[in-house]
Structure formats: C-alpha cells, structure tokens
What we know:
Blueprint: H1 2-11, H2 25-50, H3 61-71, H4 80-100, H5 105-122, H6 129-139, H7 142-147, H8 150-171
Helix pairs in contact: 2-3, 2-8, 3-6, 3-8, 4-5, 4-6, 4-8, 5-6
Amino acid sequence: MKLSxxxxxxxxxxGCSTCPPMVPLSEVAWSWVGAFLGIxxxxxxxxKFLAKIDMFMIIGSFGASAVLIYxxxxxxxxxxxxxxxxxxxxxxxxxxxxKLLPSDLWLAAxxxxxxxxxxxxxxxxxxxxxxxxxxIAVIGSSKVHDLGYIYVLIPVASxxxxxxxxxxxxxxxxxxxxxxxxxx
Length: 184
C-alpha cells in the first residue's frame, strides 16, 4: 500500500505534457530589445548618478523581472500589478525581517522569502523575482542594510517602475504584442 502511494507520488514528477514550441524569432528579438533597454536604463542611472552618491539602482532580481516583462509578457506574473506590487511588498518584508532578526540571517532569509510568497499570493501580486528582492534585503551587503526602508523606494520601486515604463513602450511597438494584459 505505501509503495503504491510512493509510486504515485514519484510518477507526478514525470510531467504530463510536451515541451512548448519555439517562439518566433520576432518575439525573441523584441524580448532582447526590451530587456536590453530596460536593464540599460536602470544600470545607466545607477552608474552615472547614484553610484556617485553611494546609492544604487540595480539589484539582481531585476534580471528575473526582465525575463517576465519582456520575454513572457502575457504571463499573469509579468503584469504591472505583479511587477510593482511583488517587488515592493517583498522589499518591505525583507527589510522588516532583517531588522527583526539581524543576528539570525538563516531564519530572517527563510521567513522573508516564505512570507513574501504568502503575502504576494494573498494580494494577487505574485512575481517570482519578488522572492529574490526579499532575500537581497536580508543577505545583501552593509550598503543594502544601511538603506533600511529606503531600499523599498530606491532601488526597488523606482527601478521596477523604470523597467515597467520601458516594457510599456517597447512591448507595444509590434502589432503582434500587447502589454499589459491587465493592470489591476
């Protein structure tokens, strides 16, 4: 009996469908253009302005956001509500947990990611890179920690907003693409 349950459990890991087809080269090209421009604007602002005043604009989770908002634009996870809400909520949670548990990083990191996922689900703002945004707030450098709640505004909210503006502009150039699918 138990072996049968284990077999059923393990059989779920085989998957149940085939690999999706290749996307057209035009989609690949527009995804590339959007990702390049979105990250370029955020990185340029970081490099030319904020780094000089010991601030920063770019975080690793923006790379994952770029995949969604330029490469998977129809996904519910890529919509503006999810992009902005997911990052901001997760940043708030990450900063709060670092402040509550600064000497227990393993616990703060675990709680930050888990709580960020739960709250994003409850607020309908699930954006996978938000988990990384929460984690960065906990395990980031002293430069991240020194920002405190400013981290939520710069780099998180402002960087995500810039990337959203680029996504709105670039994703709507070709007739075959439309972004967003929904706002709220």
